[in-house]
Design brief:
single chain; alpha+beta; Aminopeptidase; eight-stranded mixed beta sheet; seven-stranded mixed beta sheet; 12 helices; 15 strands; 36% helix; globular
Amino acid sequence: MELQTISPQEKPAWDNFIKQSPFAPFQQTFAWGNFQKSLGRKVFYLALKEKNRYFLTALVIKHPLPLKKSYLYIPRGPIINQKLSSGKQIKVIDQFLDQLRKIAKQENAVFARFDPAILKNSSLGVHLTKKYQSTTGSIKQPENTLILNLDSDEEKILSEMKSKTRYNTRLAVKRGVTIKTTSNLTDFLRLNRETTKRDKFQGHEDAYYQNLLKFFTANPEVKLKLLIASYQNKVIAGIILAFYHNTAFYLHGASSYEYRNVMAPHLLQWTGIKIAKKLGLKYYDFWGIAPADKPKHPWSGVTRFKLGFGGKEINYIPAREFAFDKKWYSLMRVIKKFF
């Protein structure tokens, strides 16, 4: 097996390979790579191949570090051939990271960071967690998520929600909250700035959301929708959803504290779930939640909100790092808290 750069002509085979993985992450698609390029980042489409057979694929994104150094990030990847035995999968991913050294050298990369959609308690997950270094970096995908199966009809999904969540969803309707899809980000950005300040977390800059929605709204593979909730002719909450393969992903949300009692976020999520069902999707991914054993986690509040809708908690391996330059890596581990 040899690590190869994949051309745009191989895009159909690449995307089909991703869709065969259990969780089919959109962050490993050609479309996501092109979006990263639009932000000015350098990306690599790499695969361990033997003739026409993929053993592993990885969308790799270059990020800058101080002193003209960089690191390579593989969001929700790499993707490994599901037909291989667990032992063979371990050998494949170890070989991939070793062969990635060539690109790391040409890009002056100190390390690679990866957070694949691999279950924490699987054989491969245990191996990767033990062998590779943890990260303190902020750029990574959620380790824990909540996925709602959409096979049931709407009434069954409603009945399986927590009673308080079901009550609040219906209360929002009763109080006159309305939901619509829009491409106008003005109100969402206003609410997002309010939410990040109130809840003390770092969001993206306005330009990121603008580029995200513009790039993916009309994308044929990964589609995005912005849903906004209005009350008394004022926009009071909004969410951004991504739709890829068989899953809807809740990516971003914002809301007004002033109108918290009308329960708009509950109705937004329920509307997103219904849209996903109408599109024929199988799952609704609520994105990041706090670990069950960390009740004081910063995401505890939003986690309680999400758990109210039901679903199954999924625990991926924590983000890992593989050092190419051990001396620089050791130094940067000391100062990593500052970037």
